[in-house]
Write a structure and sequence with these properties.
- This protein is an all-alpha fold.
- The protein folds into three domains: about 5-50 and about 115-265 and about 320-365, no CATH class; about 265-315 and about 370-390, no CATH class; about 395-495, no CATH class.
- It has helices at about 5-10, 20-50, 60-65, 70-75, 85-100, 105-115, 115-130, 135-150, 160-175, 180-195, 195-210, 220-240, 245-260, 265-290, 295-310, 325-350, 355-370, 370-410, 430-435, 440-445, 470-475, 485-495; strands at about 420-425, 455-460.
- Strands 1-2 form a two-stranded parallel ribbon.
- The N and C termini lie far apart (about 65 Å).
Length: about 500
């Protein structure tokens, strides 16, 4: 390949031997991506702490379990293959609660540990990335900004898997030889795999990406060797820790929905796809007409169109569908990781597998995905995520207020099993959007002053119940800082729906 050909095929993120103007555009694109990615990481923590987003969805159960120091007993023994997340966020929070009897502080610590994972992951990637333009760090920031806002708020373990993926990939691709590197890579791959079943797939993807060096290259062979202990640990946990019979069926169903392409079909993703297609079309038209500043013009026109749509017609909010969108982490993250690896190897002229195809792909991207074009698309995605996140958080704040008021009010629905129960359907449309039927009663306790609700808000339509009567009873009689009367309400609900003798 001649120098001119290498220049033509350089990535928009790479500092190849192009003219000063293009090199400057690349630097600006990298600066934009890293600033937005890091900014999202900080915003995740700030919003979570300010508005108790650790209580959203399944997070209400997880937070209540921390409050009563029963996270492993309540649920985590059912998903022991995700134990890295348990060790990262739950064990320290429960230990803090046990030492201080400060439940609020423990739940804040849990939120900090969980929601700061992307920030810690980026910092680790930055420290490990020794490429001249920090290619892996830049792509990690892009992945953070593009993918994570889709799932922000929902306590999916894939959130942590994403945070670990990038330092693990960076180390696997760039670490020098020797046993310290092998041990570090093996530990990181094990950590990635022990976040979620999808995390184990990401660990396999990391090894697959190193194959771009060549199947005989020491880097690939090292990664393959380091994957063995990671897979063995995951299999061991899978064989030793069996989920409860009641939970096993739900986990089996969730495994299939995790890989369902239909997870991407929802109003927000359709809107984003239309916006990006419109931007690409306008940019192509501007290119054909030779219009200067076509990226900015196309971006502004699409942004204006989005603004009009949001103002006049939009009535959707991305809430419960944040859960299935974790599939996006599994799909998009390895693709960006492979792109980062290809860019690094191309700069060093060391692509050892499928070199003609990889070079052709990078050349196509360099020709059509120019820095200005990418910057416009990236800013549109950021705008859409910012608006959707704002809608989600605003609605969540209102929903929390409604739950508090209903729990403190005079209404009661004894037909649900107890005179102290009140139906969540009284909240109306907000519950349909923000409520998570299986955890609403846990949320009631968490939001009540002193964790002492007058009524327990329950969802009459849910058909899934986290706690058995036996577990709720054991929690009631344990010495815990959560008020006894609140734990008694939780027990009453559990024993009504999963009485003694049932799974």
């Amino acid at each position: 390949m001649t120098p001119s050909m290498r220049s033509a095929s350089a990535s928009p993120f790479d500092a190849g031997p192009l003219d000063a103007a293009v090199a400057s555009e690349r630097r600006l694109l990298r600066s934009l991506v890293t600033a937005v990615g890091a900014g999202w990481c900080v915003l995740f923590v700030v919003l979570a702490l300010a508005y108790d987003l650790q209580f959203y969805g399944d997070g209400a159960l997880f937070s209540y379990a921390i409050a009563v120091r029963d996270a492993w007993t309540f649920h985590w023994h059912n998903i022991a293959g995700r134990s890295f997340v348990y060790l990262l966020a739950y064990v320290p929070a429960e230990a803090y609660a046990a030492l201080t009897q400060n439940v609020a502080g423990a739940l804040t610590l849990y939120a900090i540990l969980f929601f700061s994972a992307p920030l810690v992951g980026l910092a680790a990637t930055f420290g490990l990335d020794r490429t001249p333009t920090r290619t892996f760090f830049t792509m990690a920031c892009a992945s953070t900004a593009v993918v994570l806002p889709f799932v922000f708020g929902f306590p999916t373990e894939m959130w942590v898997a994403h945070a670990l993926f990038w330092p693990a990939l960076t180390l696997a691709m760039t670490a020098p030889g020797g046993w310290p590197s092998r041990v570090a890579i093996a530990l990181l791959l094990t950590a990635v795999g022990m976040t979620h079943g999808g995390g184990m797939l990401l660990a396999f993807a990391i090894v697959g990406i190193t194959a771009l060096r060549g199947l005989r290259h020491p880097v690939f062979r090292r990664a393959l060797l380091c994957l063995v202990p990671a897979a063995m640990v995951w299999i061991l946990f899978f064989l030793v820790f069996k989920p409860d019979a009641y939970i096993a069926a739900a986990l089996h169903g969730a495994a299939y929905t995790f890989i369902d392409p239909a997870n991407f079909d929802m109003p927000f993703t359709r809107l984003l796809a239309v916006a990006l297609l419109a931007y690409a079309g306008l940019y192509a038209l501007g290119t054909w007409l030779g219009i200067r500043g076509r990226a900015a013009i196309a971006g502004l026109l699409v942004a204006a169109g989005l603004g009009i749509y949001w103002r006049l017609w939009d009535d959707s909010v991305l809430t419960d569908m944040r859960y299935p969108l974790r599939t996006g982490i599994l799909v998009v993250t390895p693709l960006l990781g492979a792109l980062a690896a290809a860019v690094m190897l191309q700069a060093r002229r060391r692509i050892g597998l499928f070199a003609p195809h990889v070079e052709a792909t990078l050349g196509f991207l360099a020709r059509y995905a120019t820095p200005r074009a990418l910057a416009g698309a990236f800013l549109l995605v950021t705008l859409a995520h910012a608006v959707e996140t704002g809608k989600f958080v605003t609605g969540w704040i209102a929903y929390e207020k409604s739950v508090r008021e209903l729990a403190a009010g005079p209404q009661s629905d004894p037909g649900l099993g107890d005179a102290r129960f009140v139906s969540a359907t009284r909240i109306g449309a907000a519950h349909a959007r923000y409520g998570w039927g299986s955890t609403t009663h846990f949320l009631t306790v968490l939001l009540a002053p002193g964790m002492r609700p007058a009524k327990l808000v329950v969802d009459p339509d849910t058909n899934y119940f986290w706690l058995s009567c036996a577990k709720a009873t054991a929690s009631l009689w344990a010495d815990r800082p959560v008020p006894t009367e609140s734990r008694a309400l939780i027990r009453t609900h559990a024993c009504r729906h999963r009485p003694p003798g049932t799974p």
